[in-house]
Design brief:
five-stranded antiparallel sheet, four-stranded antiparallel sheet, 4 domains, 12% strand, 731 residues
Length: 731
Amino acid sequence: MAGSFGVFRQYEKAALAALAIMEMLAFFVLPPILQMGGGGSGGPDPLVVSWTGGGLRESGVQRAVIMRKVMNQFLVATMAASGQDPSRMRLADDEKDVVDTLLLAREAEANGIVISNSAINQFLAEWTNDLVPPKDFDAIVAGIGGRMGISQEDVFEALRTVLMARRMETLLLGGVGFEAAPPGVRWDYYRRLEQGATIEAVPVVVEKFVDQLPEPAEPVLRAFFDAHRDELPEARSPAPGFRQPHRARYDYLVAKAGVFRDEEEKKITAEQITAFYEDRKASLFRVKPVETQEIGVTKPESETPDAADAKDDATKPPVEAPADATEGKPAAAPAGVKDGSSVTRGATRQVAFRQPSAVTTEAPKPATGEAVKDAAAPTAPNPVASGTATPAATPAAAGTTTDAPAQPAEFEPLDKVRDDIVKRLTDEAVDKRISAIFDAVKTDVAKYGESLALWQVAGDGAGPAPSPPDVKKIAEIQGLEGGTSDLLNATQAFAAGGIGGSFEFAASRELGMRQQRWIDTIFGGVAQMLQAVTSRDIDGNRYVSWKTEDQPEFTPSFQSAREDVLRAWRIVEARPLARKAAEELVTEAKEGKTLEAVAASRGGLEVEKVGPFTWLTRGTAPFGSAPERSQPEGLAMPGEEVMQAVFALEPGQSTVAFNEPKTVCYAIRLGSFEPDEAQLKELFIAAAKDPRRLAAVAEGDTRQVYDRWLESIEKKHAVSWKREPRGPELQ
């Protein structure tokens, strides 16, 4: 499945079922909708994906993705209605997910899995913490999908099939997760994360051996091309790909961080500074009190044990909720809920959620039913939930009055915060100036797009084509930088830096404020041709850009791709020669020489001293996230083969291994491990009490097992995509 596997593991029950809901509903609800819509009478509707006994055409896939979005909104709405925070949900709308989940449901049915009505009701109760009545589900479905004819019954029946698919996944993951790992496997995980290796490595570049190969026959090249014609090239993949990826050309303008700052700062006047101070001092420049204490309450020098107990009790949540807040609601989550996606439904939580205004609208009633005197006094503390307020907790007992005048607020003097105000005013002015420039550019680009469209429609006799915005001229006039890109794919655009790594903040009603990557906007279909978009990067630079050319992915002819085919064939065929050369180095090193000495005697070979490095590293990722394979400096794209080879050695031993794309074969000699085996075992035993870090390491292996299992199901059902599945669709 798409998305973070860490989130999948965290929400093992509810979140995965939610994803499955969205996918399966597309298949079990959409068909009648499509039939009502009239099918593909509007033009060509090619088959996109087929499997044994079924398939989807382009229109069906598009409508399935739309249904996925409808289900996203339904799940978010029901979660929000239950008082939970839906912002942590990760709901993909990937085309491949739709097909994969249908296959899982079929597998479940073939294995005799049956989901009863009570199981469906239990799922709905767990998803909403049993806080949303059935009538509200119907209203939510009607508000989101009523116009498309989706009823609550449709959703109910779709859930039955979804939970069948969920059960199949549970059966697999229950046997391959970290909990089932024996001690030997856990030791291996610990080594990958904690033990560093220092090595000598001699790179043997495959491409240096291509000239030793004979010229291939034309039929051989054609067969090689046909085997990889529909595969997209990947930088770290050993398999070639001759299908050309989606490319785009774009114009852009960039306002560098700090641009216009000096100019705008000089324009700030004393009157502006004073006005800013007076207008915002209450929110920005209030003096922080040394000690926070309720006004009018005198803290006694010493508290009696009873008073201290009362104070402690006053800070604790009520031990039970009022009857009217919990009536008709269970006091605990349904049995069997063990995932982290549900909010614990203790009585205290319901009181806080259900009655947020009780404290401000009327005086709280004591648990004993006794009236509280002077309840309207603004400084009187709340009574203790477990009984009446003690004398030490009331103003009268402290020897104070309830009508004491409030102390006037104190603010930082203007001279002390002047520099801060100047900075804020400057930032606002710069932001306003850049926004005005970018808005004008957006208008010019839109006008050019309209003029170009009219000119293209007019055809012959329409005169010369309209002139596009001149980014270099605009940049020169406005004090910006600008340019035009080459025809790049998404990977190349990102690798180029600058705008390739920029983003913008996008507001979503379902998920709130989130980051939208510029790469996804330009190459993911969000931005159309000549549609200007803004973005920014982490260094404070701001961009406005627009696509001027869009080239969809395509498969070239053999003749046009022949040179690339020949080069790829030669690299694949030269790999055994490179490996043989690396093995000769290792053999000579085993005769008592170091790799460095062997390389020096051969001439033209370089020795890289690398390490210490671990097999896996977490880097800057947050605690609990799955670690990634290390990329030690001095090795070109090392993959699992290199890591397995290195950490299978003993100090002083040598071996050979290819890098991940198999463009370099390394002769490797292990120098040392840090810490050594004995020290590492002691650390491993000490760390056994907290297995969370190792569970994160195991996550990658679990993901691989899951992927291979899913691939076997796809092979069993003969799934065939006629084009690359798209997604996840951007919202």
